[in-house]
Amino acid sequence: MPIQNWATRDLLDALMTKVSKKTFKTVKDLDVIEERLQKITAILRGRRNALASINRLPTELLENIFELVQLHLHIFIPSPPTASGYDHGYRGWLVLLAVCRHWRGIAATSGVLWSSVDTSFMPQRFLKRSKDSLLSVYCGIRRRPAPKAELQLIQPHLHRCADPASS
C-alpha cells in the first residue's frame, strides 16, 4: 500500500480519536464538523465513481449511449399526468442527471439530449440546454390548445425546428 494511504489512514484515526474524546459545548460545533465530514465523503464518492470503468469511456461515447437511453416523444401516445405531475415515459432519461457528477456534467451539457422540447415541461430549460441543436417541438401535449405563452417561448427558436409537431 502506498505511503500516502497510510498517512491518510493515520490522519483519519487521529481525527476519530480526537472527536470521540472531545467534549463539544454546542450543537453548532458538532454541525460544523459534520458538514466538513460530509464534504470529505462527497469528495471520496466522486473519486470512487471516477474509478468506475464506464466513467473512463470518452465523453463522446457516453453521450452517444445517453442518446440511446433517451426515448423520443413522438413514439408515445399522450397520457394524463401522474399524481406527481411527472410522466416517467419519454423524460425518464433525466435520471442520468442524478447518477454521478460526471454523468450530470455530460447529460446537462449535451445539446442533443435536450432537443426534444415539450412546451408543457420545462421548455425554457430544454431550449437553453439544447444549445444550437435542431429541435423537435411538441405543443399541446398536456394542454389543448397550447397556451399562447408556450408558443411565444418557442417562436424565437423556430429556425432550429427540425420536426415541428403538434397534437
Write a compact overview of the structure shown.
It comes from Cylindrobasidium torrendii FP15055 ss-10. 47% of the residues lie in helices and 5% in strands.
Description:
- With 167 residues, the chain is mainly α.
- The chain has two domains: 3-51; 58-166, no CATH class.
- Helix content is 47%, strand content 5%.
- The protein has six helices and three strands, in the order ααααβαβαβ.
- The chain has a three-stranded parallel beta sheet with strand order 1-2-3.
- Helix 6 (148-154) links the parallel strand 2 and strand 3.
- The radius of gyration is 23 Å and the shape is elongated.
* Overall number of strands: 3
* Biggest β-sheet strands, sense, barrel: 3 strands, parallel
Sequence of strands across the biggest β-sheet: 1-2-3
The residue ranges in which pLDDT falls below 50 over 5 or more consecutive positions are none
Proportion of strand residues: 5-15%
Structural class: mainly alpha
Straight-line N-to-C gap: 62 Å
List the secondary-structure elements in sequence, H or E.
HHHHEHEHE
Evaluate the radius of gyration.
Answer: 23 Å
Mean pLDDT: 82
Number of helices: 6
The tally of structural domains comes to: 2
Shape, principal axes of CA atoms: elongated
* Estimated helix fraction: 40-55%
